[in-house]
Write a structure and sequence with these properties.
CATH topology of the largest domain: Rossmann fold
Structural class: alpha/beta
CATH class of the largest domain: Alpha Beta
Distance between the termini: 79 Å
Helix content: 40-55%
Oligomer: single chain
Strand content: 25-35%
């Protein structure tokens, strides 16, 4: 459905996106993630045809967006982050206007507008002025504008930003429904949202793709140790001895004191052993009462942070290497210059 092939975007000497490639299959809901300045918005703007890549190809449903822009763009519905709407229009008038812009046939326009109003859940507010709608309904109107013309691809940029919890839940449910009929690319900073909605995740940082996988696989891949969260009553402070009693334990980390007098710890191991059974056996013998014991889980947020931090470390290593190489070249050049001066000096002495 969407193919991004070796795409680069430069602004003068600045490389915003550097030779990226990925694809999004028909009917997928894909999360597109990255920190601020990573190249996320630039990539989305290139996919929608708003800006052209410096080099590379973007193909939408078989149409190269550079060579066949009208055919490619007709396949795309785009909901930008800042909800650009005409506040003096009603919701229905705005959607009708979008249908006209997208060249929906006049004979089909009325039916298409009503269908999109129902899809976006706007039946109760369709005749209200947009300026009088809540933020959540404004988001829905913007989404309806993206849906007009039944595009195969829906691109949503921060669709739940600024919404209250109830509105967020409603928009997420709506996006899940859209995923049954459309290919969806979702850009968001709310990583729990991606875990709940998306089948696959693409992470970009410093203009390069650093990970493409399911949320579950990314969480597993970045998990270094097995962890157990335990809440205990330990009046004698015997938790400090547990590491000596269970050889598989790497670390016993104190987390906090609770109001009821219990304490919370995280116990980690790098082995594949499930520590829960051993903890159930050993803790009571040490006069430690267990209130809660469960496995800790790596979240997509943990995976995201680790992948970004790893990129930073690699980037620093590359910078240090480049700095060392530069220093070596400068030393070599200085040494050659000294040798040349010495040779010239000896020649002068002979004269």
């Amino acid at each position: 459905m969407i193919e991004v092939k070796n795409v680069t975007k430069k602004y003068g000497s600045t490389i915003a996106v550097n030779d990226i490639s990925f694809d999004v299959k028909d009917g997928e809901v894909v999360g597109f993630l990255g920190p601020n300045g990573a190249g996320k918005s630039t990539t989305m703007n290139m996919i929608t045809g708003f800006i052209e890549p410096t080099k590379g190809q973007i193909i939408i449903n078989g149409n190269d967006i550079s060579k066949k822009p009208r055919k490619a763009k007709k396949q795309i519905g785009y909901m930008p982050e800042n909800v650009p709407l005409y506040y003096e229009l009603t919701a229905k008038e705005f959607i009708s206007y979008m249908a006209e812009l997208k060249l929906v046939k006049r004979s089909e326009r009325k039916k298409e507008v009503e269908k999109v109003i129902e899809e976006a859940g706007l039946q109760n507010v369709k005749n209200k002025l947009i300026r009088n709608l809540s933020r959540g309904y404004k988001q829905r109107v913007s989404l309806a504008g993206a849906l007009v013309g039944n595009p195969d691809v829906i691109i949503l940029d921060e669709p739940t930003v600024g919404l209250d919890p109830k509105q967020i839940t409603e928009i997420r449910s709506l996006i899940k429904e859209l995923g049954k009929k459309h290919t969806v690319i979702l850009s968001t900073h709310i990583l729990s949202e991606v875990s709940q909605i998306c089948e696959r995740v693409i992470i970009i940082n410093k203009g390069q793709i650093i990970a493409v996988d399911t949320p579950e696989n990314l969480e597993k891949a970045t998990k270094e140790k097995n962890g157990i969260s335990v809440i205990v009553e330990d009046p004698k402070g015997n938790m400090n001895k547990i590491k000596d009693r269970i050889k598989e334990i790497d670390e016993v980390q104190f987390v906090k004191d609770n109001e009821d007098g219990t304490k919370q710890y995280v116990i980690t191991t790098s082995s594949d052993v499930d520590l829960r059974k051993k903890l159930f056996e050993v803790l009571p013998k040490e006069e430690i009462v267990i209130f809660e014991l469960k496995k800790t889980e790596t979240t997509l947020e943990d995976a995201f942070i680790k992948l970004i931090d790893t990129t930073k470390i690699e980037d620093n290593v590359d910078k240090k290497k480049a700095s060392k190489d530069k220093a070596k070249k400068e030393d070599k050049a200085e040494s050659k210059s000294k040798d040349k001066k010495q040779k010239n000096s000896k020649k002068e002495e002979k004269k």
